[in-house]
Amino acid sequence: MSKTVVVVDDSKFLIKKIVAFLEKELGYKVLAMGYDGNDAVKLYREHKPDLITLDITMPNKDGQQAMQDILVEFSKANILIISAVRGDTVLECMNEGARGYIEKPLRFADPEFIEDFKETLDEIFNG
């Protein structure tokens, strides 16, 4: 059975790119898409996906706060941060329970980037 995913980012353009990659390249099933941290928490509760991707910088509730809220209820949640944010915030997210980090800009035309993305997902799902 294919992995299920919820994708959350405030950019509809990037959501389309991420969804296309996950579905076409990896055969994952994207169950829902959200545009802010409130959507992330609501959609995780509703779908309980194998993976949720979160941007850090989003309106209403940022990805870090959404991640914290999700992990309070679902301590085993697989959370992948996809963000242009670097440094301390990313380290905090990783220390607080994010399972992986992909740095924007997303370069789906770059084979090395695609390989790194796949390796990150493999580590999340297979330890």
Question: What are the key terms here?
Answer:
127 residues, five-stranded parallel β-sheet, Rossmann fold, alpha/beta
Give the CATH topology: Rossmann fold
Order of helices and strands: EHEHEHEHEH
Per DSSP, the total helix count is 5
CATH homologous superfamily annotation? Response regulator
| Level-1 CATH class name | Alpha Beta
Percent range of helical residues = 40-55%
CATH structural architecture: 3-Layer(aba) Sandwich
State the separation between the terminal residues, measured CA to CA: 19 Å
Major sheet: 5 strands, parallel
Reading side by side through the largest sheet, how are the strands ordered?
Answer: 2-1-3-4-5
Strand content: 15-25%
Domain count = 1
Query: Averaged pLDDT, please?
Result: 96
Weakly predicted, low-confidence segments: none
* Cα gyration radius (Å): 13 Å
Strand element count: 5
Label the structural class. alpha/beta
Short summary:
With 127 residues, the protein is an alpha/beta fold. 48% of the residues lie in helices and 19% in strands.
